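Task 17 of the worksheet. Students: predict the tertiary structure of the chain below and write it out as structure tokens. Keep your answer in the requested format; marks are given for formatting as well as content.
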Amino acid sequence: MIQLIIDTLITDRSQADVDYLRMLFALGWDAMSETQRQQYTDGYNDPAAIRGGYNGTDLNRVEGAAQEIEAYLAALPGVLAAYLESIGVAPDTVFDVPYQPFSLVTRTNWDRNETPNAADLARYLGNVVTLLSKIPANANSPESMERLDWQGANDIERALLAEWKAANDFEADTKDRARKTAAAFRHCGTFYSGMEGLRI
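Model answer:
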């Protein structure tokens, strides 16, 4: 089973994570224990090892998750239309998605030592804001990437998770309403069978 990037988002960073990384910086490589050196090295590729920093690994994860949500939302109108057809319910605006087609500009090849510029960061955060505007989700994102702290980093990834859940909930709710509509149609008449087959 392929793991979605959305399932790897980090939302539980803490001040302790930041303090630990600062401690490692203060120690310096030569004074670190073997365990600390391994954690520091792994932290570039495994955010679970060192959560107090923010580097290309974090950028790639968030941008990748944004791509997954964008793809899901782009496919959703077709998914719902196919479902309506499969249960014999005619298309109707009540089953439409609440957004127009859109596209994001994303990048998922950030190097761990690469520093994004102001335009990169504005686009990066703007993608999150754009996604949150498509299907209402109970989430907030930072107003700016300037002086991003651990709470803001959590909020960015928490917002993506919230939008993912809102989109999935919207799909499930819309299909449920469609099923109820189909059932209402069936109950409007009386089914009977005879020489000519099943009729209403």
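Marker's comment: Residues 54-177 form one domain. Residues 99 and 134 are 6 Å apart (CA to CA).
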